[in-house]
Task: structure prediction
Amino acid sequence: MRDINRDLQAGHQILSLFERSKDTIDSILDRQPALFAIVDSSGRILRGNDQLAQQFGRPLDQCSGLSLNLLFTPEAWNTFFLNLLKVTDSRLPMVAFELPIQSVATKQIVSSIYWRVEILQLENSPGLRMALVLGQDISELRRSERQLSELFATTPIGLMTIDQKGNISSSYSAYCEWLLDTSNIAGKNACELIFCRGQNDFSMDQLSAVDQIPNLFGKSAAEFEQAKIHLPVELNISLGHPAKGLRWLSITYHAIEVAGRIQKILLTLSDKTSAVELRQLHESRTILQETAVVRILEVKRCKLELLELLVQDFAGVFSGLSKATVSQDWDKVKRALHSIKGNARIVNFDQLSGIVHNLETFVSSKSEAKDPSWQKEIEERMDQLLDEWQEYLDLIFAFHKINGDADAKKEDGGSDLELILKSFQALINNPAPEIAVSRARIEMALKILNSTPVSELEAKVNAQVQRVSAEQVKQVEVSCNWNEVRVNEEILSVLSDSLVQLVNNALVHGVELPEERKLKNKPAKGKITVECRETASQLICEFSDDGRGIDIDRVRGEAVQRRLISFNESLNLSEQQLMQLIFQRGLSTAKSIDQTAGRGIGLDIIAENVKKVSGSVVVEAHAPYGTRIKFTIPIERKNPEKKLIFLSSFLDQLNLEIQQLNHSVKLDLPKISLPNLNDQDFIFFGNAANLVLALSSIVADAAIENEVRIELAVQGERLVFSIHSGKSRPRIKLPPEFAIGLSGCYATCYSHLGEILRRNHQLTVSLGWIVNPSHLPPLVLAPEPNQDFELVNKTLNRVKKICKRFAVQARELEKTLPLSYMVSIVKDASKSTMPVFTFGASEELQQKEFLSLLDSLLMGQKRVN
Amino acid sequence: MDCEIIDDMENRLITNLTWLKSTIRELSRMRLARYLTEPNLTIESQSREPGQQHSMAMILVAGTGFRVVFRVHFNRRSISPWAEKIYKQDKQELNTSQVSSFAKEYCNLTGGAIKQELGLHGLDSGISLPLLTRGFDEIFFDQPNEMRIFTDWWSLNHQSTRMMCSTYLEVQDPGALDQLTLGEIRLGHLPTGEIEDL
Result:
């Protein structure tokens, strides 16, 4: 028994030690700074600590048996309890979550707690499901976070975090909203808000990296660093309103890790718009500089005579392009562009050619798509093209001035144009006071040069041959026979465009490669021949090559495929008729489109242009021996633009010109008068200004070595202008605008339906017409064959009302008509069954009023004054 | 034949345990009544509620073939009126260790009474020192309900003050308690005992 007592006492001592030891441990647990509790599956507290008791507001020893739900609002407790169940149901060994402890009464957050709930399994009580609950008070952390957020809100840096779904977390700097031009971005998808809103040209790697962002969550920082290399670091976003344009953003990416795994991604955004715009400005300046250098080199490399032709051609083409753009005649626009491209390529203006090619592609795609929104864009691009051409023009004139190329030309033997350019240059460089020539007069002189030898096209043809043959690696020999044919500018332009296109076609499609030619027993070098000749009434131009000819079957196939003709039609057409189809728009036998060929624009332009000058074009092809294309253009000059002018006024202008000539070169030219001239009875049709200069030039030329006498007479409806030269006099140097040769002057006279007769010392220029007002064609108002009848009736009624006010005056004025007006709205009045009216007005005010009313009424119609 | 013997043994064990449980209940009441000089204490049976109280005092009475653990479950506030009376101190003056000491001493007194009562029935036993631990530790006693482990829960009440008590009985030898029900219970001869801080 004594032993038992001794053992018990020893046991007591050990138990006492354990008791104290355990008490110490319990005290340590009690004083833990985190919330500590052991709860059962219902949330009842089995063991707590001081921090927990503090939350309950009770002494620790009164917390046992309480339920944790007393700390939460019902909603928060539901959340906690669900997490607790996950553990006590053994679904998860541990859950961690953030849940604030809120005042049940006020629902205000008392503490922000990060909870960690773990399963606590006892070996001796397997049925009792308990959980160890640890709660870390992160109120301070949240407070600091709020302070930081407030700080961020005023910081001009966009900070935001995105979660695994790619959504923006609720904590972000307010600056983000400004940067992204979107309010309340919390919860929105970052990819949609940032990466998909701009006009960004992301690479495939970048797009893939953006798509992979959700997959980065849960990975290590090292993997993130590897992946973020491909994420875009600079991008733009479209702002809400189109007027705001784009905002450029710089983005950096940082991983936010928890336990070594990425839980969130922090994006730092900043506004780089100014920097990017500056950079773009710098880049565009650099491009401009480079472009300018290229342009200069292109102009400098080009021969002067080609430039002169180009300037001449482009004046008309660009004018036509502008008109076609305004009238939205896209077929014409495309043809004009094609013509510009061809010409630009001849002179090796690659930059211009490239711009036009792109524009041509753009116009083709858009016009086919029938997209109405492209009008503005095309106008802008047309303006860019015109600006580009203007840049070339400036350079061309600048080089003339700097290099003095014009001066380098021989004084005699140069063409009219060269001489004019030379004199123009001289005037600009040396505006001597004794040369009292106004710029307007120089321009006038330029205008009368409407007759040019077609041989001037040779340089252009050769340049095109040289260029395209080099591109196509073909050899070709050119032979031109121009037969001293001269044509006006319009025909020259038509021939120029046509020949360029034909050279292109011949070299691309016709002339074979040297190896192929050898196999066909042809000389390695191909041959292109151009021949111009004149008959009494026609200009004939033949272009031929000895290439493979035209594959008639391919033309047939293409024409059917493009529905230019039906299949049945294709079978019934003769070979010649089929051949003519190559002049149809859209038909090309080229297999692909490039800058050289393939659009099916080209030959149709030729046909169109030739038609403009009332000509025709025929193709003859004999595969495999070559192709021959023949233009026939009537030589008869088109009537000039009709203008009414009093004969007295015309004579005044002529005398004024002669006086100026007398004054500047000390000529003694007589004043021209017309005996018995009634300047109110006669009206002269014609381009008076050009004619005045032409006649004065002829007079001046005759007066260089001779004394002249000038007579003017009216014979029927023609004005006869006779120059008699007799006694010799010393040679006088004429001002440059008159020293242009007389061919242009004669051409001007011809264009005014003039006849020139030279007999010994007499030169007679007979001009037409002189028209008496009583012979004036009447004002004709009649409908076009396809015009809307109702509209015409309405117009006529309105005209009648206007005319009624002038009716009395019109009747009275028929006898002493001071001024008459001819207005035409029809092409062929003889086919009209509508009434015909004649109008007139005496008082100046009435005349103006009358004209104004008719103008407004007949908007867009031609008024002859 | 064997089955009859076993049944008889179990019946006797149940009888003995029932006697022992009620004896311990009564001893706990009488000891506290005497300790507090408060004869109007009542016993109230309680359902098993482990871990309800923050603290637990316990004492082990062990003999050959059996072990008895008497436990007192309490919060400081729940039993402080009685501690105040014992220590003759105000609520404010009373500290936690005094309340714990009261519980431990009461455990010791009750344990001694159990030992004495068992001795009167010829059962020698030893008694441990009373231990104080957290109420949570009670769940470690919550072992599977085997045949020879028995628990009993009751409270001693007086006015608004209540103290939870429980007994944990473990019988290794069913015959060890046979002597208990052979004689009379002599509860009226309990020793007075002295109060001392343990």
Remarks:
- The CA atoms of residues 68 and 113 of chain B lie 12 Å apart.
